[in-house]
Design a protein that fits this description.
heterodimer, A: alpha/beta, 16 helices, B: about 350 residues, alpha+beta, four-stranded mixed sheet, rod-shaped
Amino acid sequence: MKVEEYVNRFSELMNNIFEQIKRDVIGQKDVIEETIIAMIAGGNVLLEGVPGVGKTRLVRSLGRVFDLPFSRIQFTPDLMPADVTGTNIIVQDENGNSTFQFQPGPIFSNIILADEINRATPKTQSALLEAMQEHKVTVMGVSRQLDEPFFVLATQNPIEQDGTYPLPEAQLDRFMFKLLVPNPEPEELKAIINMTQKTMDEVAEQACTGEQLLLMRRVANNILVANSVMDYAIKLCSATQPDGKYASNAAKKYLRFGVSPRAGQALISSAKVLALMNGRFNVSYGDINKLAYPVLRHRVKLNFEAISSRITPDEIITMIIDELAGMKENKINDVSDDEDVDKKKKGKFGRNR
Amino acid sequence: MDIFETYRKRLKRIGIFKSIMLAFSFAFVSVGIAAGITWIVKTSIFVTLATTLGVGITAFLIAFFLFYFKRFRPTNEMIAKKLDSLGQDERYITMYECQDDMSIMAKLQRSDAKKKISGISPKNLKFSLALPVVLILVIGFVFAAGATTGSVLYGSGIVGSSGIESETTSPSETIEKFVVTYKVYEEGTGTIEGQTTQQVEKGHYTQAVTAVPAENYRFVAWVDKDKNYLANQKNPRTEINVQEDITIYALFSEKEPNDDDTDGDNTSEGEGSEKPDKGGDGSDSESQGGDQGQQGGGISGGETGVGHENNNVIDGTQDYKDNFDRESLENELADSDLPDDLKDILGDYYGSLKP
């Protein structure tokens, strides 16, 4: 099938995916949408939410909808790296000779659910690093490529911090999105209860194959990004660097460290998918702004003032976006004052003010 | 780009209008400055009008072309950004930037943008003028109108440089002059020494003149046409703070027999003769004669050491003649706003305070 046809079918595929996931997961529309965006863009997702909000169910449903092999790893303090990556075991061949044979771990799958990832030790958490970034696993000096598409969908619980190991920055950076899974609304909760009274089984059916997913990724990669939009994404990332040249006031006040270049890559990659999902062939400022939250929130390091003032990363991102939107002289975009008059109606860079 | 043409026309009109508004602001300010300068250098009305008009037109033309061609002339990029600002999600700036891209995605993007543009009316590109521009326009207009009006009024002589109205047409003509004439009331009774007709600038002093009685006459007073005594009765006489044309008469009267003792030095003690009937104390005539014609000689004749009874106010022995300054009192009286008849009464009283 040609790329052009896939472009035209993209919306149809997306609708099918949503429809199937909705059969298993009630509500959580934004979380589902952003998870799918990350999957199409080739990123990993960290889902954070209190127990029982449907994180694990969502990931399992995704595995069913995409008809991809799915592995679940329950992270515990005694989980070892080999339990994740696999290890070499001694086996006897037909001649009776003992040889090492690699026994793949659960990571050799397409969709990995790393449940409660922050309960494992940093050593075990690190076992995921190579797989998440390079999609390969090295055991005893031998690297093995993982099958594509490959995603790690990790969950963590923001409460019950005793006996947990917060993810290090390096690992957090490898998650394209960090999604906050909220508690369901009363109506949603009612629907969840009604549904689970009948059956706990997941009923979602395949809506898309792995090949189609990869093709969608290729199509999305070709979405056009105007220079001004690209520059805005760069400026948004740069504005989080408190010591940088383009540091925003919010960053200077509340952040210790800003985001890495991976954030910029993730922002553009995911914005392309979002544009395509919305039936556009170009990225807009609105796409960047919407995805700034899941892309940036886990990559910024708050300083003491922010923590003591209970300022959340999302609030800081909002401040930065507002600051950029309110800047009269945008050196990157060089937008004239005349155009500012019109932008005020909609908000500069597409942000409604 | 062809699809931008209808919007280009609209934006061109908006751009021209904005440029005109800004050029007017610039021109108004320039006119105001030019008018201020012409006011300061005191040019004529013609030069003022020609200068301000020339500066205004030049500033307008320069500003208009600068604003339009450097800022408001619609380019494809500007049109694309304008269209995107109408909620088009950066379709048109992307299309503009990727117009040379022949990939399938770029073609799809252009196709999508062209499809969407059909829903955008050129009228959606609203004209808006920033508040600072409006303020500059209004302030500039007021400034220009005020400065030009002031300069023209000044140039036409209606308003002086200080803004106070005057009837003259040039600074040199604003100095007013008045004529002060001294005459003898009855010909043959005396003469006036000094310049009898003097032209004096407003508020200035005349040169002193002296009333000299003819033989057998004595000087009585300075009077007006109706023989009313004037406040200041000094002889020699000087008019101070001249504010109008004045004619002053020197009044003489024939000497009476008991006036003989006073004629010794009448030219210098006119005031002493103001009330000749009261000055008839022959015993004091020497003291008046010794006055040597100094001002108020009539009361300072006590240089001889002999007092006058009028000065012995309290106990009849103490002479108080040195304790009041008659001249300053008379000057104060002359400068005061009192009615003339009251001035005359007070003048008479001052005149009575003499030997």
